Amino acid sequence: MNFQPMAASDNLVSRDWTSDMIAPLSDRGQGTAASFVAKTFNCDCVETPAELFISALGLYRCFINGKRVGNDLLTPGWTSYDHRLAFQHYDVSDLVKPGQNRIEIWLADGWYRSPLMWGQKAIPNCWGDQTAAIADLVGPNGVIVSTDTTWQSGLLPIRKSGIYFGEIYDAREEKLADTHGTVRLPFDKALLVAHETAPVRELPPIAPIDSWTDAEGRTIYDFGQNIGGYVRYTVRGPAGAEIRVEHSEVLGPGRHFDNRNYRTAQAHTIYTLCGDGEQTYAPHFSFQGFRYARVTATGDARILAISSVPISSVPNLTGGFQSGNALVNRLVQNTIWSQRANFIEVPTDCPQRDERLGWTGDAQVFAATACWLTDSQAFFRKYLRDVMADQREDGAISHFSPDPTRLHPKNFPGFAGSTGWGDAIVVIPWVLYTHYDDRAVLCECLNAMVRWVDFVWSISDGPIVRPPSRWGDRGFTFGDWLQPIGDNRKPRPTVADDCAATLYHFISTDLLAKIAAILGNQALEARMKRRAAEIRQAFAHEFIAPSGRMAHNDQTSYALAFLYDLIPAAHHEAAKQHFRQVIIDADYKIGTGFIGTPALLPALTKLGMDDLAEKVFLQEEVPGWLYQVSKGATTIWERWDSMAPDGTIYEPDMNSYNHYAYGAVCQWLFESVAGISPSRSAPGFSEVIVDPAPIAALSPVTAYHDVRQGRIEAQWECRGNRVTYNVTLPEGCVGRFRPGRRHQNPLLNGEPVMGEAVLRAGTHELIFSLPHL
Ligand code: BGC
Question: Is 355 a catalytic residue?
């Protein structure tokens, strides 16, 4: 059977629809039983290919003669629906038969109308209050059937579903009855675009590694891996018996099932058996973030088989990193799992609680790592269109996209305009350009970038951004969100909002000047260069003392300022020593939050402080990357201290165990430790900068990255201070190696290296000694 979605391969962007968007008259609104729309039709003879073009308001699954069309999940996907609605395109030649046929489209609330946003203020019906479907089934001779008001509707066995809610399914109601008609909805078909990214798909299921019964007789399953997905099980039992599945990411002390951190997300499924032999169930229109499942069975229902099923828009890896340190290897795996779980249609913060939103800050700090680990080009391009759709009139970029608050600001006013978050509109296109040579994305986003940096300038009307401290006020910033402050009796210095905001103001302005140059827009380039110079000067004046010590003597300030060349040459040495001291004073523990963390190790590497990079990266206490791994984490935590050393769960009000942001350190593993980076002058890896900064304690290291040209591999081993480094480049990639201070007496393929060496396709051996620091 051929169920391949065709949109991605046939470059279809839009089409002329003959059909109407039709809503089921059986529908009673958000949070009630789900409906289907259906039509019985005749086909004299089936001429192939028979193709189905389909979309929906809400989520849909389509069946032709009882067989499911395709295996994509959560279709049509999630976009800022009032701007774009995705459609899918399937070859259904094998499903349509001569004679009588029936097509059924199951509908559910999905992101379109199930409540989104947190707590009691959650917003239902964000983009509309009616579920509906549009479909054209066409053969070579034209339309076979398409949605119109001759279609019927009725209720599904899905009695309730929602993104945070989960799903209630009554198998006794599986015989569908066409009880109602349908109504045509006013709908602008110009909104329909072919699905812009790969469909969400299942990954191989995961069997439990342990299970036990709690005091109330419920079975708890441990699947060993935190995921975004669902539980699938096979059950036998009498009609009316019930299986309830609840989810959790962690166990509290005493292996206590604890999902308080899901906040108001019910995140459960309830399945009522029809008594008809063995039945297999997994939710249709929801997913959860979990490692553990607590199963309550009533009325003699017996689970015969159970697994957890991860789902993702990016199931395939394009990068891997292995070292001699098992905790580091697990950290990389945890990042991969957090990316999978949070790359479900939209790059989200977390997959479990009443949030699961496309936070722009999280996405921008993680974007480069995402591109190392999976092919994220189409995924981010789609996301950027949502970010642009949600951009406010004054240029503010929303805190998350698709933004459920834009059309309903009442409960959540002013959810736009934070530096570090809104900068996603500049940073992500730049990452796509460097990784995929995607110039088109720069063109597409240019105007939105300009509007964003002008917005930030306008907050304080000048180079130093002075954001208001009140959440919701114009220009509010999250600063260096979740920066750890150490012992709260004597907290460590943290970066202040004005410094954090000004740093990012500079980063985006400077990047925009580069982007303008690439696009040949000289006027913009000159304007942004002038502005960047003004910010740089004002920054030094405002935030660096004449001694070279930064006003906010903290890791984030130094890391970002050094990484983006904001420390004047005169202060360089002194500031470097202050940076070193700040890290020593913190006992080599991390002192950075969301925006400082990705910059910390790259800044240390850039400054040649490899000894500090090694100590900070490899220390296992909190706060530190390996602390969570040593606590058994299987995904990246939202907070450095999400769990206390004794296993106590940090306050559950804002504590996710699956937040990819701090996994952004993987970019440094590829670019510094493995020493391969995309070059800005010849992006898309046609040129690869080879510049290894080995951390001896990680030896041996192997890394790979699949690019359009083929596979890039890097591998090194360290004996004493002697490093043997091998890099393999595919045809179409040229490497450039310029020995630095850490590459003493370098030999390339047996020959001493003088100046920059150009590496052609093939494997090259580089031998050098590490300096004694
Ligand atoms: C989210 C984030 C986000 C942050 C910004 C949190 O609730 O989970 O990851 O970036 O809010 O404030």
Answer: yes
